[in-house]
TrEMBL record:
PROSITE patterns: FBOX. InterPro entries: F-box-like_dom_sf, F-box_dom, SCF_F-box/WD-repeat. It comes from Puma concolor (Mountain lion). This is F-box only protein 36. It holds the Pfam family F-box-like. The gene is FBXO36. Residues 91-137 form the F-box domain. The lineage of its organism: Eukaryota, Metazoa, Chordata, Craniata, Vertebrata. One of its GO terms (cellular component) is SCF ubiquitin ligase complex. SUPFAM superfamilies: F-box domain (SSF81383). GO terms for biological process: SCF-dependent proteasomal ubiquitin-dependent protein catabolic process.
């Protein structure tokens, strides 16, 4: 397993399915699957129940069908599938990279690839629409960014600025300068 991965690979907490009031935690570390539970009951026979914990290595978890069924019932099949993947050493390394690093990588993609990437997850959709990404893209396409262009990008957004043709941009910069000029003379 990659040593740069954090100790905790995945964690989820939740309440058991109705009518249960019990709480559960599932924690996947680099070497173990830890399942914890807290019994919540008004019945006197369960009031003294202490919290419980089951720890398995990844290999043990892959063979422990009882624990797998419990996880599927409480957290759902998708969580169980994800935990299986982690225990088998299948990691989504892209999801673990910082936003800044991903923005740098995405800025080198073709526009069609950025559009496709934005459809893969909420996180990538947010990154692909972000002003930071489009500012990087505009900087890579333009030789110079004038203060007027920067001010216009602040108003309209870098993405919108990128997709606006040069004539429209020049017209908008001219209008912006005229507004600023008339705004200054009206204050005098």
């Amino acid at each position: 397993m990659a040593s740069w991965l954090p100790e905790t690979l995945f964690e989820i907490v939740g309440q058991g399915p109705a009518p249960s009031k019990d709480y559960y935690q599932l924690l996947v570390t680099r070497s173990q699957v830890i399942f914890r539970w807290w019994k919540i009951s008004l019945r006197s026979e369960h009031r003294s129940a202490k919290p419980g914990e089951a720890k398995d290595t990844h290999e043990e978890f892959l063979e422990n069908s009882h624990l797998q069924v419990q996880i599927a019932l409480i957290f759902g099949a998708r969580v169980l599938d994800y935990v299986f993947s982690l225990c088998e050493g299948k990691f989504d390394f892209l999801e673990r990279l910082s936003d800044n690093l991903l923005l740098s990588i995405i800025s080198y993609l073709d526009l069609e690839d950025i559009a496709r990437l934005s459809q893969t997850s909420r996180r990538f959709a947010k990154l692909c629409m972000s002003d930071e990404l489009w500012e990087k893209i505009v900087h890579s396409c333009c030789d110079t960014i004038t203060p007027d262009m920067r001010a216009l990008a602040k108003d309209m957004g870098w993405r919108q600025m990128f997709f606006t043709n040069k004539l429209q941009l020049q017209r908008q910069i001219r209008k912006r300068k005229q507004k600023q000029g008339s705004h200054r003379t009206s204050h005098l």
